[in-house]
Amino acid sequence: MIKSLNIHPNQELIRACQRNDRKAQMMLYKNYYKAMYHTANRILENPVEAEDVMQEAFIDAFQKISQLSDEQSFGAWLKRIVINKALDVIKREKTIQTYREMMQHEIFTEAEFDDQEPDLQYQLREVQLAMQNIPDQYRIVLSLHLFEGMDYEEMGQILNLEYNNVKTKYSRARRRLIGEIQRLQNQQGKKEVWHVEN
Fold this sequence. Notes:
The structure is a single chain. This protein is mostly helical and 198 residues long. It folds into two domains: 7-93, Orthogonal Bundle (Rna Polymerase Sigma Factor, Chain: A), CATH 1.10.1740; 104-187, Arc Repressor Mutant, subunit A (Orthogonal Bundle), CATH 1.10.10.10. The chain is 71% helix and 0% strand. It has helices at 7-18, 22-44, 47-64, 74-93, 104-107, 110-115, 120-132, 136-147, 152-159, 163-187. Mean pLDDT is 76; it is low at 1-8 and 95-120.
């Protein structure tokens, strides 16, 4: 997750970037490039393509930064550009790898791990394996909602879908993921009840 920056220096950097100040562009890049890379890589599951998407997103952002108002969040605006570019890669290539690395250090803090059952690591591996076996469209909506923190309206804007369509697709994605986890558990002779966030 992008760490919040002091608003005044950040606004000054944005204004400097709007004047095409290279030093300010480099400072904004250093502040955000890691978070943007991880966002792209969670969708693409390809470090090389994620790096390319991240670089292209920054180029686009600096070219269009005059459109950004002081009240807008640069990080959220940039993340939207990154996600759109990552989805464009998927559409072009018609392929998507699995979300093997679900950034569990971002999903679960160290404190949360202390409160979980001892087999949490195993459960996460089950989720990762199940994510490999569900359709691309479902992996994308699960990632955007669960890991990028987007609501249905934001996902609709990114995916060019109506609110109700996004809600329906996410509901189906949850059912598919839970069903796949349970199928894998049945193969291993385990029985657990799984819930995924609404």
